[in-house]
Amino acid sequence: MRIVITGGHPGPALAVIDHIRTSYPDWKIYFVGTKNPLTDDKALSFEYKEIATRGLSFINLDTGKFDRANKLKLILNSYKIARGYFKSLAILKRIKPDVVLSFGGYLAVPVAFGAKTLGIKILTHEQTFGVGFANRLIARIADRVLLSWEETKLVDPRWKSLVTGLPIRKSVINAKTQMDKSKLPLILVMGGSQGAHFINQLIGNMLDDLLSVFRVVHQVGDSSAYDDYVTLNHKRKEMKQEIGDKYELYKHISTEKIGTYLELADIVISRAGINTMAELLYLQKKAVLIPLLESINPEQLVNARYYKETQLGTYLKQDEVTPEKLHNEINNIAKNNAAKSDIPVFKMLEFAADNVVKELIAVTNG
């Protein structure tokens, strides 16, 4: 089988890719994505790095975003969107895939509509509790809409939808057996695949206090707009060696290693993206989530509230958080001995990638 995978949520896409490579090694996989995450940013995207390490074909696609809040930008982006559609047609004609699997986001729209034009089967996967604008468009033409949560089935009953769960990385699933913990409690700090400048600054201002009690592993991202890695690495080098040795700093933690760090972590400080939250749920980690501002991404606040309801962790709004408030929440959550949960959705995450692949086969053969 020849399959094109695309979309703006690389975490579950990579989980499905790894499952395919293990179970169906003769399948040909092509990934359509963006090589650089930000305009005029020379840094390579998370998905490009991960696809490259797997030796798979990565096809860069430049297209426009659906900025509905800014009509002028939407008009200006219309040309890029149209160009993305025609580029997608050319890509699909060259590859001749049996099926296109989308993981939502603006990048997936021209690819999906190109597939529809050429009569190629389309499946799209929605990760969030709601449904993003891009996936609402794709769902209208998709042969199957795959959902992560039962709650999402209520969005539009006309869709050919079913719940597969949210695919999480194999390294996270396998990490459940990796329990070689250090005597010093560990805080893992993440800001999503590209890092988070706000969280990086916040942790940088708290390092002296944190490192007196914890070991800290910090993924800062690789955005040239801020150079947080350079700033924090300089700060680490100025510390006494016995203190600096407790602070591990990375631009990007690989898929292979992230599961180990998540399992070893006593507390996680992170944004509240749906894929991060799903992996924290699966491992049932104590966490303090700092969702993006509601004006930028309202979904993250929904995710953070859901996580708090599980009693595994809590959240702080970005426009309200201070080093003192975060320090207090870390201390409070460190004392929390919440019992492990048997909520079925947690267990479903383990089999989500397999569920998605089964639907790929069913739709393609149907």
What's the quick description here?
The chain is of the alpha/beta class. It is built from 15 helices and 13 strands.
Structure description:
This protein is 44% helix and 15% strand. With 366 residues, the protein is α/β, with parallel strands linked by helices. The chain folds into two domains: 2-163 and 350-365, Rossmann fold; 172-335, Glycogen Phosphorylase B (Rossmann fold), CATH 3.40.50. The protein has a seven-stranded parallel beta sheet with strand order 3-2-1-4-5-6-7, sandwiched between helices. Helix 4 packs parallel to helix 5 (133-139). The protein is globular and about 60 Å long. The chain starts with a strand and ends with a helix. One of its GO terms (molecular function) is UDP-N-acetyl-D-glucosamine:N-acetylmuramoyl-L-alanyl-D-glutamyl-meso-2,6-diaminopimelyl-D-alanyl-D-alanine-diphosphoundecaprenol 4-beta-N-acetylglucosaminlytransferase activity. It is found in: Cell membrane.
Number of helices: 15
CATH topology call of the largest domain: Rossmann fold
Give the C-level CATH assignment of the largest domain.
Alpha Beta
- Can you identify the CATH superfamily of the largest domain? Glycogen Phosphorylase B
How helical, in percent, are the residues? Answer: 40-55%
Rg measurement, Å: 21 Å
Q: Determine the mean pLDDT.
A: 88
Class based on secondary structure composition and strand pairing: alpha/beta
User: Largest sheet, described in full?
Assistant: 7 strands, parallel
| Fraction in beta strands | 15-25%
